[in-house]
Design goal:
- With 243 residues, the chain is an alpha/beta fold.
- The chain has 2 domains: 4-66, Ribosomal Protein L25, Chain P (Beta Barrel), CATH 2.40.240.20; 76-239, Alpha/beta knot.
- Helices cover 31% and strands 26% of the residues.
- It has helices at residues 21-28, 88-98, 115-121, 128-139, 153-158, 177-183, 201-209, 224-239; strands at 4-5, 15-19, 36-40, 46-54, 58-66, 76-82, 103-108, 146-147, 151-152, 165-169, 175-176, 188-193, 213-216.
- Helix 2 runs parallel beside helix 4 (128-139) and helix 2 runs parallel beside helix 8.
- It starts with a strand and ends with a helix.
Length: 243
């Protein structure tokens, strides 16, 4: 659930009565009695609360925790992830969410498993957004990252039109990530991670035509889930809110 913005002051260990647009936002994001939510009060402070009562016009929330600092990173990271087999996509969503990812867009590359093949073995895609929600609750984030449906490689590239640093992990000829980040600091990053077999040269060329720079994490070959989680963690450490 996204952060609920209030135009009133909130106090710890007290109930707060919410009315008007914040209640509409609460209901829109699936709030219900017993749900844990994050609120930002009129002074810009973040709090954690539990919904005690909820009707069409008002809600009562008990505030049980105050955050000493913002829980959302100022760095926006969009993870473009080649569809992996088995439970690896679930792990990537969970850990990337905990690390502060903004959005995750799975895609099918030439060497990745197809979405149809994966779903035929074990239907899991319907759980992806729910996994992100659970990870937000566990990590006490204020915002749930969007998890998109699996798309073709070219379609994902064409959707990366906004300004930002565009990185593609390529173990063969990529430039060291550390060097690129020191040369090109950014507040928004598109991070593309390939399948177990890696990207084809044609895919790397196509990505370069869309503004992506090939980078690598080192000399070792990492599994796709390890590469994705490591990449997000490094980006947050270098440019985000990990310290």
């Amino acid at each position: 659930m996204d952060r609920i913005l209030l135009n009133q002051k909130v106090e710890l260990e007290r109930e707060v009565l919410i009315q008007g647009p914040p209640v509409e936002a609460l209901r829109f994001h699936g709030g219900r009695v017993g749900s844990l939510i994050t609120l930002t009060d009129a002074e810009g402070s973040d709090f954690r609360g539990r919904i005690l009562q909820l009707s069409g016009t008002e809600a009562s929330v008990f505030i049980f925790e105050a955050f000493p600092s913002p829980t959302e990173s100022s760095l926006e990271i969009v993870l473009l992830q080649a569809l992996p087999e088995k439970e690896r996509m679930e792990m990537i969503i969970q850990k990337a969410t905990e690390l502060g990812i903004s959005a995750i867009f799975p895609f099918q590359s030439e060497r990745s498993i197809s979405f149809e093949e994966r779903e035929a073995k074990q239907k899991k895609a319907h759980r992806w957004q729910h996994i992100a929600v659970r990870a937000v609750q566990q990590s006490r984030r204020a915002k749930v990252p969007y998890v998109g449906a699996c798309r073709p490689f070219q379609e994902v590239l064409e959707n990366c039109k906004e300004a930002g640093l565009k990185l593609l992990l390529w173990e063969k000829e990529g430039e060291p990530l550390k060097r690129v980040l020191r040369r090109q600091p950014a507040r928004k990053i598109y991070a593309m991670v390939g399948p177990e077999g890696g990207f084809t040269r044609g895919e790397v060329t196509s990505a370069a035509n869309h503004g992506f720079s090939a980078v690598k994490l080192g000399q070792r070959i990492l599994r796709t889930e390890t590469a994705a989680i490591t990449l997000v963690a490094i980006l947050q450490y270098e440019l985000g809110d990990l310290s």
